[in-house]
Design a protein that fits this description.
Largest sheet: 6 strands, antiparallel
Radius of gyration: 15 Å
Strand order of the largest sheet: 1-2-3-4-5-6
Distance between the termini: 26 Å
Number of helices: 4
Mean pLDDT: 87
Shape: globular
Strand content: 25-35%
Number of domains: 1
Number of strands: 6
Structural class: alpha+beta
Order of helices and strands: HHEEEEEEHH
Length: 148
């Protein structure tokens, strides 16, 4: 019985990485674009199931729950942004912070981080550094809905 639970957990972690790497890369590419227009940015965020973005004085601000993550974006203009992706539930403690200056990935950003957060950090970094492919998991997310 434990073996099948371990296999389910491994598959869930693999599916999570296959979603999170292209999701993060897509957001970074979008936010880093030197030619993106605000309306295009908002449209692309909706394609990623981030629907509640607000605009004020050229600043775009949003926080949304996407799968097992809380995603926050503060976009202040071309190549000037803060993207935060925090793990929830079993990924509590996992956190990615990306700005136009770089990336920081933590697995201990909560009072009681999970073991899964540590595993996710390692797998995310292993996959984010190398060229990534758009995975079936990510395409299914874009086509079907934000929390599926």
């Amino acid at each position: 019985m434990n073996e099948s639970i371990d296999q389910k957990e491994k598959k869930y972690l693999t599916d999570t990485v296959e979603f999170l790497v292209p999701f993060t890369k897509t957001l970074v590419d979008l936010l880093s674009s030197s030619s993106v227009k605000e309306w295009v940015l908002l449209s692309e965020l909706k394609n990623l199931h981030i629907n509640n973005a607000t605009i004020s004085d050229g600043t775009i601000n949003t926080t949304a729950e996407v799968k097992d993550f809380s995603v926050s974006i503060l976009y202040v203009g071309i190549r000037n942004f803060i993207l935060t992706i925090r793990g929830m539930n079993q990924y509590n403690g996992f956190c990615i912070i990306i700005t136009n200056k770089g990336i920081v990935v933590n697995d201990n950003s909560s009072d009681s981080p999970t073991d899964e957060a540590k595993l996710l950090k390692k797998r995310f970094l292993d996959n984010y550094k190398s060229p990534y492919l758009i995975t079936d998991t990510f395409l299914k997310f874009r086509n079907q809905g934000g929390n599926g």
